[in-house]
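I am writing to request your help with a piece of structural work I have in hand. I set the record out below, with my sincere thanks for your time.
___
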Amino acid sequence: MFMGTPQLAAYILEQLIVGSAARLSAAPPAGAGLHPEVASRFRAQANSQAATRSQAPAANEAGGGIKARARFEVVAVVTRPDRPRGRGLATQPSPVAQVAARHGLALYKPTSVRESVFFAQLKSLAPDVLAVAAYGRILPREVLDEARLTPVNVHASLLPRHRGASPIEAAILAGDAETGVTIMRMTERMDAGPILLRRATAIAPDETQASLKARLAELGAQALLDALDSIAQGTVCETAQDETRATYCKPVKKEDAWIDWRADALHIERMTRAYDPWPVARSKLAGQQLLVFKAEAWPQAASEAAPGTIVQVKPAPMVSCGRGLLKLMEVQAAGRKRMAADDFMRGRRVAPGTRLGE
């Protein structure tokens, strides 16, 4: 059984379906309903997998080491209830629900996993493994115990670092050089269960939330398949987390994206990447909201101007920070398109000395 809600979990579910024995002959979906970057990566990987499968008999005859995978079936999918989404706030199913529906899988959307009706449904399914990815709720012991072999979770960080709801944003904000995914056995404590395996990846200097989420979705899907193999073969090894190294991150809220220009330029630049595509780093110009999508930190530069002051407009807008300067590169005003910051400032006739945040 699979449990998840957002786009990252939807990609992982797609890969579970592609990898399941019951659907090996089915053509992989085109990635509809996923974030564009995730969908693009999925299509490329799906094409590669199809080519690999077509060559599998010859490789096996030649002793070519194609890894034998455990046979499994996704018996059901659990996700959060439909809710208003998009500009029109029309009620829509979650990305995971959309994937499950396309593949005709049994789908459950309980308001609470503690509901007696849902629990009865869960018991009737008798799952061997409960695979969870970004479901958004801590599962009670009675739910976890229904997995005959084990309940596992795909977490988008190298645990015990960045336990919690926003590990991708947290890794970028912290300036981490690397992050990754962890497959762990679930316990009642948040992201604290023993580790089954981890996969690391470097964080690029220009990495955004969107690009990192797409890469971690791929990494997480592969890691989960590897973990399922180990569980089925009885070769999985558990490693306890080091509690002294645990860090935590809270759910990201829209208000977290407001820029405090008293912070150092490096931190503000990381905000622009961590909050792209949502909630997007933002400030105010002449009382109007200004979204900042891309910027460059100049940590060694100095200015005596108050934080938030635009100290120059040409050749590129530079803003004074608590430490260093921030070069604005891409911005968007309310009701306008995203555009180059210098074009925006020139069009608005913004002069040096103008304060952002007011």
Summary: The chain has two domains: 2-248, 254-348.
